[in-house]
Structures are given as C-alpha cells and as structure tokens.
Amino acid sequence: MSNQGIWFSDLSRLVNPNSIVLVGASEKPDSIGGRTLENLTTFSEFKGELLLVNPGRTEIHGRPCVASVKDLKEAPDLAILAVRADMVIQTLRDCGEMGIKFAIVFTSGFGETGEDGRAVEAEMREIVASTGMRIYGPNCPGLNNMNARLGLTFSPAWRIDRRPGPIGVATQGGGLGRSFIQAMDRGVGVGLWCSGGNEVDLEVSDYIHYMADAPDIEVIVTTLEGVRNGPRFMAAALHAARRGKPIVAIKVGKSEYGAKAAQSHTAAIAGSAEINSAVFSQLGIIEVDDIDELIDVASLLARRKPTGKEQLAVYSFSGGTAALASDMVGLAGLKLSEFAPHTIEALRNALPGFAAFTNPVDVTAEVLVNTEVSYATLKATAADPNTDLVLVPIPVEYGKTTAMLADSMVRVQQEETNTPIVPVWMSDRTGEGHRKMIDGGLMPMRAVGNAVLAVQRFIEYGRWKAKFEREWRPLADVSDAEATANLSEAKTKALLEQAGVPTPRGVVARSPAEAAQAFRNVGNGKAVMKIVSAAITHKTDIGGVRLGIASEGAAMAAYEEIHANGVKACDASQIEGVLVEPMLPSPFVEAVVGIHRDPVFGHVCTFGLGGVSIELFKDVSRRLLPLTPASAREMITETRCYELLKGYRGQPAFDIDALVDMLVKLSDFVGKHAARIEELEINPLAVRPQGQGVAALDAVLSYQGTEPSTW
Amino acid sequence: MSNQGIWFSDLSRLVNPNSIVLVGASEKPDSIGGRTLENLTTFSEFKGELLLVNPGRTEIHGRPCVASVKDLKEAPDLAILAVRADMVIQTLRDCGEMGIKFAIVFTSGFGETGEDGRAVEAEMREIVASTGMRIYGPNCPGLNNMNARLGLTFSPAWRIDRRPGPIGVATQGGGLGRSFIQAMDRGVGVGLWCSGGNEVDLEVSDYIHYMADAPDIEVIVTTLEGVRNGPRFMAAALHAARRGKPIVAIKVGKSEYGAKAAQSHTAAIAGSAEINSAVFSQLGIIEVDDIDELIDVASLLARRKPTGKEQLAVYSFSGGTAALASDMVGLAGLKLSEFAPHTIEALRNALPGFAAFTNPVDVTAEVLVNTEVSYATLKATAADPNTDLVLVPIPVEYGKTTAMLADSMVRVQQEETNTPIVPVWMSDRTGEGHRKMIDGGLMPMRAVGNAVLAVQRFIEYGRWKAKFEREWRPLADVSDAEATANLSEAKTKALLEQAGVPTPRGVVARSPAEAAQAFRNVGNGKAVMKIVSAAITHKTDIGGVRLGIASEGAAMAAYEEIHANGVKACDASQIEGVLVEPMLPSPFVEAVVGIHRDPVFGHVCTFGLGGVSIELFKDVSRRLLPLTPASAREMITETRCYELLKGYRGQPAFDIDALVDMLVKLSDFVGKHAARIEELEINPLAVRPQGQGVAALDAVLSYQGTEPSTW
C-alpha cells in the first residue's frame, strides 16, 4: 500500500449535522438514551432537526417518536445509536440502507470483549463498505462539539465541560480524553472532542484530518494506544502540518507493560516505540509522555505559534525559585534573553538595590506587595525586545501578594504585550491569585519542570516548522512481509554501484590464481578478502575475512584458507567465491546505514556511528523514506557521529557532502524498488576525508520475490 | 582538611529552647518584631521563658521589656534578633558575651548586598569564634518547629502552616522551602523547617545532622544552591544514612544559568553538577529536579521505608489510564507484580467479564459506581502477596464516583493493609474525592509521570540502603590547590607498580643501542616505544609514539625518530629517554581510570570505556575515595563498558576481578598520598581476558609539593 489513494471523508455533517436521529431515545433520565436526549436538547444549542426512534414510544417529552429508522421520511445526516448490543447491527444496516451519512455507536460489548465481538465489528465494516455510511465507535462516549455547543454524547459531564476553545482533541479511549478536557478548569478551551472507542471505521486519523481543516480549531491533541493505519495517520498529520496546525500526541506502548495493556484495552498494536517516535518527530508531531504535559504544550500553542527562536525571561519574587527556573532553562538548552539597556534601566528604577535587574529578574518578596512595582517590572520584562516569553514561577500562595501579582500579570498581558506571560503555580495551595490567572486566560502550569519542558517542545516545534519540507510525502510502502531472501555482499555491492553508491572496486575470485590476479589489480595497496555467499551472514565469525593482504602469495594463501573455512560453514555450492577488494587507507569514520520496512509506517532509514556506538549506546537517527538532502544532513547532525565527521580533536574533517549525497541516492534506489526491498544495511560505511567520498565496505540486502538481477 | 575533626553542635536548644529573648520586640502588629512576638505567644505553645528587649519600652502587651540584652539577669538559650541591620553586630556581641547559646538573625542587608555586607558577616563569624554562640541567619525567615508548635519566625504564614509531621526541611533560600511547606495542603506533614538564609555560621549540614538525631523526624528534605563545606555536608549526610533517615535533595546550579543565578542569590558556589550528583548518589541522597518531585518522594518515604525490591500494582477505572501508567512503570524499569491466583480469583468474582483482572487492573468506570466493588477489588489488589505498592491513577474528577473510590481507598488503607495505596489525581479539576484522599492521609500526587518517578527513586533508595557500607567514610581531602607539576609516564608507571597496579614492564632507553637491547628483553613479541618527558603531554601529537616495533633495527630507527621529534617539541634536557615496552596482544578492553581532587568533596575516581565512549558519550561512573571492593565493582557495572567486559557478542569475558582489585589498590595509593596527589589518570587501562589481569598502558600524575621519589 502506498500513500497514493489515501482519502478522507468530509466529516462536517458528523461534527455539525443538520439533522440527527437518536435511536433508543428515552424519557428515563438515567438511561443512556435519556441522558443523550437531554444533552441534545436541554444542554445543546442544536438548531437542526432532531428525530427520535424507539419501538415502544410515539412521543418523548412532547417530541414525536417513530418505531424504526425505516419509518423516517428522510435520511438525516447523523444517527446516534443508544441501543442494546444485539440490536446494533440491524439498526446500522437500516441506517446505512436509507442513506444516513454517519452513525455514532455508544454501545459497548464488541471487539473489547473478545473473538465474537470482533466478528460483529467485521459486520459493521461490511455495512460501511456496502452502504457508504461511516461509523463512529462503537464502545465510545460520543462526540463533543463545544464550539457549536452540541453534545452528541450520553455523558453527564457534557453539562459541565462545555467551555469552547481552539483545541481539538482526538482520542481512542475516553478516560485520558476526559482528563484533558477537565483542564478547562485551568482555562484551557477545547472546541471539539472526538473519542472513537473501538474505531471499527472512522479513526483518530480521520478526526485529525477534519480538525486540520476546521476553522475553529488551531491546535490538535491526540492520545493513541496504537496507530492502526500508518499511511493514513501520516497523511492526516502532514495535512495538519501543511495547514499550520500543530499536533500534540501521547502514545502509550513504549514499554512491554504499556504495549500489553494498550493491546488488551483497545486491541491496537503498539508498534516499535523508537520508530513511532522518529516518525512523530519527522512529521512535526509533538510527542509528550503524560497528560499534564499534553495540557501544558497545547495550552501554550493555543496562545501563540512559535518561531523556534524564542528567548525567555524568568521573573520571580523568590531568588531561589528564579535560580531553579533558570537552571532548568539552561539544562533544557533554552536561552535566557539578554535584556536591552532600557529594560534594565526600567527595572532598576522600579526596584531597590538588592533586587536582580538582569535576567532572571528577582523582584524580591518585599517589593511585590506594591502593585505598581509588580506592574511596572512585569511590563518592562515582557516589553523587552529580546524577550519572547516570560516565565513567572510562583513558589507559594501568598494571599494578597500573589493576588496582586496575578492582577499585574493579567493587566500587562491584556493591555501591554503580546509576549506570552506564562505563570507556574508551584504550590499545592491555590487561592485568589491562582483563580485570577485562570480567569485572565494565563493558564498557569503546575511545576517549573513542566513549564520548561512545555516551552522547550513549543520552541522545537517552531524550529521544525521553519524547516518543514511542505511537498515531501512518505514512501509509506507497508506491503505485507512475504518470505524474504538475502543477497550476497558482492551482488549487493554491484547493485549499490548501479544506484550510485560507491564501493571499493572488488573482484570475486574463484580460485587462488584468480585471487592473485585480483590482488594485482588492486595496485600498490593492501587488499581485503572475504567469502562470498548468501548463506553466510557473519563472515568474520566463520573465518571468512582476511585483512591487510600485501602480496600475491598472501592472496593465494588467504583464498585457500577462506574457502576452506567457508565449506565448513555451508554447502560448497553456496559459495560464490572470495571477494578481493582494495583495503581503504586510514583515516575514515565507520558509519552504519540501514533501511528497513517498518510494518506500520514503511521504509525507515537508520544512521549512526559504527562499532560500540550503535551497539552499546543506541546512538542513531531515523527518517522515513524518501530522504531529501536536507533531511539526510539532519540525520547526520543528530548523532554523535557528527562530532567525529566534522573533525574531532585535530582530526581532519570528513566528507559529509558525499555522505549526504549517498544517503539520498540510497533512498532513491530503495524507493524505486520499495515493494521488493525488505532491508538493506551498509555496515560499515567508510566516510573518508573531505573530497574523498564514501565507500560501502560491507552490505547486505534482504528482498522479496524475484532475484534483484531481474529488477 | 580531612573528615577527622568534623563535629556538630547539639542544636536541641536552638530548635527547642527553654528560654528565648526577642530583641526588637514590638507591639506594632505589622513590624517584624510585632509579628514575631505574636507568633511566639498567640500562635505557639511555648512553655519556656520569653524575655523581651526594646530600648524604647518597659513592657509590651503586659510583658516586661528591658532596654538591652545586657540587662537580662540570666542568659536564655536563644536570642531572636528583629533589629535593624546597623544594630545587629553590637546585639550579637552582647548576646555572645553574656553566654547565649544561639542567635537567630532575621535581618537582611548583609552578604547578599555586596562587599560591605560580606565584611559584616566576617565580623559575625568572629563573634561565633570568640564567644561560642552559634548564629542562624542572617537574612532568613527564622525557624519553624511545627512538632513543638513553636514558631521562631516573623512570617505571618506560620499561623496557617503548622501541621506537624515526620518530615524535616533544611533550606537555604526561603521561597522554595515555603513552597514545600504548602504541600501540607496535600496532607504532607512537616515537623521542622530550618531556613538559614546567608548561613554565616550554622548551615544546612548542621540542620541535617540535627534532624538525623531528632526522634520526631523521619525524612529529611533539603534545597541547596551550593554546598559550602563538602566534608561537613558529607559527614552530616552519612550520619543521617546511619540513622536510617533518607535525605531528599534538590540542588540548583546544574546549568550555567542556574549556577550564576544561585551565586547571585546566596553567594554559594555551585560546584560541578556531575560531581555533585555522583556524591549525592554515593551517599544515598535522593536527588530530584523540581519542588513537586521533592514533595512526591518525601511524602512516599514518610509513609514507608523501601526495601529496594518493591513490585507495583496499577489499579484504575480507565483502561487508557491503566495502560499509560503501566507504560511508565515499564519505562522506568520498575516491576508490575504478578498477582497470586487468589487475587485474580477475588477480582474475577467482583468484576464483570470485560474488566481486566490481572495487573494492571482496569475495573472500568461502570463498575466503580458500586462502592462495594471498589472496596473489594482495591482490597484484593492491595492484599496481593506479590504487591508492595498500589498506584491508583485517577484521570478525572467524577463527582460521586471518585468520592466513593476515595472512601474505598482510605478504608482499605486504614483497615486492611500496610501496602501503600498511592493515588494520582491527574485532573486539573479537584473535588470531594480529592479532598477525601488528602484527609485520609493518602497524599495524592499530581501526574502519573511524577508518581512513577517518585516510586522509582523510592525503590532506588531502598536498593542503596541494602548495600550501604556503614563504616565507610570519605577521604574528603580538599586542601587548596597549590602549584602542581606533572610526572613523566615512566615515573608514574614506576609509582603504579609500587602501588600494586600492573604496567607493561618497560625500560627507558637513552640511546639507539639501549633501545635495541630493550627490544631484545621484550622477547618474541612486538614492542611499543614512547618519548619520556614530563614536558610533553600529548605524545602522539608530536610523533612521540611508535607501535608494532618488530625488530632491533626498527627499534633503533624508532629511537632516532622519536628523539628527533621530541627535541622539536621541548628542550633536549627535558627528555628522559624513550620507553620501550612489550606491546600487549589483543584482545583487551581499553578503559580509562582517573582520580582527581574535587575542591568541594575531595578525591573522586572516574571510570569508563576509553576512546569515543568517554569523549562522545560521557559514559562514566564516579565514586568518592576510598573505593571498596563493592563500590569499585559497582562503578564498573554502572557504565556500558561492563557490557564489553562481561563478554559481548561472543567475545571472551575480561578480567573484572583484576580490575576491581586494581581500582581498590589505586584508591589506597592515592589515599596514602592524598595531600600531594592532584590528579592521576590511566588512559588507556587494558583489561585483559579473564585470568590475565590488567595493565596501565599510559598514565600521568599531577602532584603538589615535593617530587614523588621522596614520598
């Protein structure tokens, strides 16, 4: 499957239906149908037509009610199913057949209960395929459209959680979503919450795609237990990126425990956490680890879009707190702004001698009791031309003092500056000041570490955006793995040469005499000799490699030896010969480049320094194919390998340009044969001094289907 | 300075004085003196004698008042100074001279304001030295003894923050301390808070030492901007460790910003963050990064002392939340318990089919509305014999549901089990359930990540405790750095041999003929030749090293060449000759061992894998001297080097026992000459296959004072 042919339904009539039928409507206030009806009427501002279905009623609360969906005169946009599990399939069929566009199914008792439930879900998908109706659910709390004040949900919480806002939330399970929604109490506004439960049809990717186009949504938040369809997910994420809407995501399943628990919860496959994180990072998806982090980052993005160049000021009335916050800013690799002279002057004028006028600003607690001082100093700090964000860590609830500080912050933010003022309410004790910050729209965070982490991610997103290649699309070839075969080193190298990837020019000798001849061709230098056989993967381990061959005699002896070792390891007929290559002169850096097909996202390239660096330190960078010159260069700079390549401690600089060129060519080659290439690894890849290029010293290809010679 | 001769005053009469004089007492409710008086009388339960001094009063609120400390008939235990800065020195002198044991100085305007203030602080120290009176402060909020209900402070917050408890808090700045104290609102009880401000005399170490002995304190919390006196701090920390009282610490100054801000705030020197963290970890001090982390870890330790073997259960009513929490448990390297069959049986009996009976437990939201079910399932989970701690992440405030859950939790904890039940109240919305958890003593944490991190640190402390070597004391030789000199490789190696550290047995040749002779002594193998000169530190860079010398002729040629390169780099008289050593046969692992004197804590040993691992990945472990066999072995296992040493991917195992032995001998050697050795580095140290020992291939020593030959 490739990214051609991915499309998304327009979900406008699901999110903002003109007409709704509630199947299973009830007058009982504690029933699912009754609560949903109340949410749709008393607690929504729905202007469209609301139809009710219940076989046992002709009217409910004065509204007409029909016995079956089939009794409706016209197909409404949306059906909401609040019916028993055993009635769901028939109702869905009726809805689909009469031309209803969308169905929300609250009912649980399907895929999450086991094999039988999964069979029913397959029937649901069949209804989607045959009627074109799209299904949201089952086993879900419904859909909350706060911005339209429309609660397509049975949850009694809808009555409380209706504060509108610019954040769209797309979740799988409902608990984490609701946890995010309750951040409304911190002033965080959510405009739309889609929580699709078992996702038999519509899934998180669809909601993200919709939110990317929705004019009332500016930031997208998602919680994932697994990515069901990698190419669709990537397409939705890129759509959001092109629309300039950041996605903040939490993905469960990074550890074995989490993967197991997530799978048992929503039956989603967790996939590889490393690959997942690499893909998120490449697509500009801001990955976080916890719900409070999700809230912090989203709330910041709802206030401002970052450029990636932000510099911070820290403003506090406690010296220790200022030091703590500055310390964390530094540890996170962020920059404290250097105040302009007029900022320092303004602070100096407002503050006594023992306060700190530079960044971090410590106005001291004594000073803060004067509201004019806090206003003037906050204003000066926020207005500083080098400052893009003001962090205000507040260690304690101090009654009137913190309330006055809150007043000043809100006033400065509303009247004086667009520079975000971000309070951190560190204490477990809250009070008037905290309340005022929330009411003033400042969405206080809960710990200095949280705030700094949020700002760091905010700025990183800005940097990503600045270098985002808008036209890039992932290869996304996720064909099922069939039986694969390995190609010998010599044949793989021949393919690489064709693809424009340099290798040492070697010859496969089939006798000692041919080895001697091949050695002569090498010229004056030394040679390397290696067994050639697709059946032998660890050549060194079986004695199939000799380095530093310096004479024809040595080449002939090495041939005998290597061949003899080879026939001990596999059948003689599987040995193609012995590869004789010139031995590359020092210095060079040994890197590793691997491309493999990830089952969720398609081909991913991995780059790193060879030897113990990869083995012991897992110091690698990853990118989805295709690579571009810019992304290939980034991959290199993201690893410690870059330290060596650019010339470490008096060593020469190595040929990074050639490395970039080679990575792109390799990516193009794999892209051309994506359906057939499972894995291709060059290890080691020698990166030679500047101007001397690179050389694939060893390589192995794993492929599907026909022999590469026929490609 | 060594750890001999470190002693701590008994602070009992500071913390629990029998008699107090308040100098600067006032009837004005808003003055420092007035607020302090009110705190001592109306808001304290002080049974001792309270005397007042104010030159302008004869009585205040009906209490007699004298004009000067000198007018007191007897010296009270404690003087509290609420006087102007210009009166502090005279008052302190009067107090000291009349035999008062302790003085608390609130007044600010000293060291924190600059040079003049520091001069006055020197006078204060002089008073301490000449009178024996100990000073707490200046520039501090005073001392809060909640357990005795005694507020030796001017802070109006004392009236609110008096909830007693088992946690002792020792801080430098007051803001972060107060932030911690307000965690009382989460049910965290603090029994004593010492916040010594500028610390002219008494310092954090003194309060830690006191708390280690105080029967009402079980956990010690500290915030540090700098460690003023390393040996004293270590002695206090070890005293607490021997008393079984954990210390949880936050240390500002890990980044340049933080170090600068901390220094400008309390004039404390930050020191090296890496060394600091290594020392904390070795002493069992639990280092955290933020105030909320401090609260979480301390609150957990206040409930239970860990063994290091704890296994966790996760209990939730949201599947996604259970998955998220399990994921974090896994990522932190913690263990989910495997439930005993009877636990699973009990859960199965109480729950419907679609819930999760194994760990993590997902009781589902529907179930939770039944209080008997939540009680029964929580009880079964907490009573599970393999479970040592139950984490209950609560994603949302759900009104009655969460209130009922809280009831069940509190009831199970109080009536049924000692296994800590740790709730995580994830939502920004709080309510009845949250309140009930606090009132029930469960001290809810605020985010899953926070809770898992706290549990991780809790368990790590348990592991540390299990292996704590009670009799160990640090070398703590922090003599001031004088001029240092370097010793040549050959001389350093001779010293190492004396110390029992093997080196290749080399000979220093002083002519080509001697080099040939030396080569013959090497035997059949190859030789290494290196320039010998204390003036040349980078031998390779100047062409002073030749490897793989295989004949006498080559040895003579190499001598000429190396010597010629040497005289280009330094004066010929500085060249001692050329070292001829046998070249060590492969395989061996190249490690690096360095010992250097840290100015705060004394000699620290650093161990790691050589080459790029140290250079690029900073993968090292550190220990204060002296090393013991156990700590030396730990150092090795803490680095990735251990992966190679124990036999990586078919490689042989290397001689770890010999490495341990060598590290201890090196430590003993440095310990013996601690005052003279500034730095000693062995790089590389070859660790040979099991049974073949280790060999210092290169080494350099930097020393003070006389030549080591005279030691």
Describe the structure.
Two copies of one chain form a homodimer. With 711 residues, chain A is an alpha/beta fold. Chain A has four domains: 12-301, 3-Layer(aba) Sandwich (Rossmann fold), CATH 3.40.50; 307-467, Rossmann fold (3-Layer(aba) Sandwich); 505-582, ATP-grasp fold, A domain (Dna Ligase, domain 1), CATH 3.30.1490.20; 589-710, D-amino Acid Aminotransferase, Chain A, domain 1, CATH 3.30.470.20. In chain A, the strands form five sheets. A seven-stranded mixed β-sheet of chain A has the order 3-4-2-1-5-6-7, with helices on both faces. In chain A, strand 24 (589-598) and strand 25 (602-609) form a beta hairpin. Chain A is flat. Chains A and B meet through helix 5, helix 8, helix 10, helix 11 and helix 21 of A and helix 5, helix 8, helix 10, helix 11 and helix 21 of B.
CATH architecture of the largest domain in chain A: 3-Layer(aba) Sandwich
Regions with little confidence, pLDDT below 50 for 5+ residues of chain A:
none
Name of the CATH class of the largest domain in chain A: Alpha Beta
Oligomeric description of these chains: homodimer
Tell me the β content of chain A: 15-25%
Biggest interchain interface, per-side counts = A-B, 90 and 90 residues
Share of helix among residues of chain A? 25-40%
- Please work out how many helical segments of chain A DSSP would assign: 24
Structural class of chain A: alpha/beta
Q: What would the CATH topology of the largest domain in chain A be?
A: Rossmann fold
Rg of chain A from C-alpha positions? Answer: 31 Å
Shape of chain A: flat
Integer average pLDDT of chain A: 93
The CATH homologous superfamily of the largest domain in chain A is termed NAD(P)-binding Rossmann-like Domain
Number of domains of chain A: 4
What about the largest sheet of chain A? 7 strands, mixed
Please give the alpha-carbon distance between the first and last residues of chain A: 20 Å
Pfam families (chains A, B): ATP-grasp_5, CoA_binding_2, Succ_CoA_lig
EC number (chains A, B): 6.2.1.34
Protein name (chains A, B): Trans-feruloyl-CoA synthase FCS1
Organism (chains A, B): Cupriavidus numazuensis
